[in-house]
Design brief:
single chain
């Protein structure tokens, strides 16, 4: 079962290549932000899988911190975009 967890974690890391492409070539800042959110979500998933595979409960705590930081980042982006849009009007 540990091999399965590690294989899924590796697959999730490979999906980050698509996210990196979107960050570099995204047509809008919103596309780039969604790709950055993909990084946060993937990091949380990888940490949870590694926590289970390696039987390290501390990795769950780190995953929780990453999830909270990803939420704060999304809120900050939306507030910044909202303020920029209201300044243009």
């Amino acid at each position: 079962m540990n091999t399965l967890y590690l294989a899924v974690a590796l697959f999730l890391l490979l999906t980050l290549i698509a996210g990196m492409w979107r960050i570099l070539h995204g047509p809008t800042p919103a596309d780039r932000m969604l790709a950055a959110q993909l990084f946060g979500t993937t990091a949380v998933a990888c940490l949870l899988l590694l926590s289970q595979a390696l039987e390290q409960p501390a990795l769950r705590d780190i995953a929780l911190v990453f999830a909270l930081l990803a939420a704060v980042t999304a809120i900050a982006f939306v507030k910044r975009a909202w303020l920029k849009k209201s300044d243009e009007s």
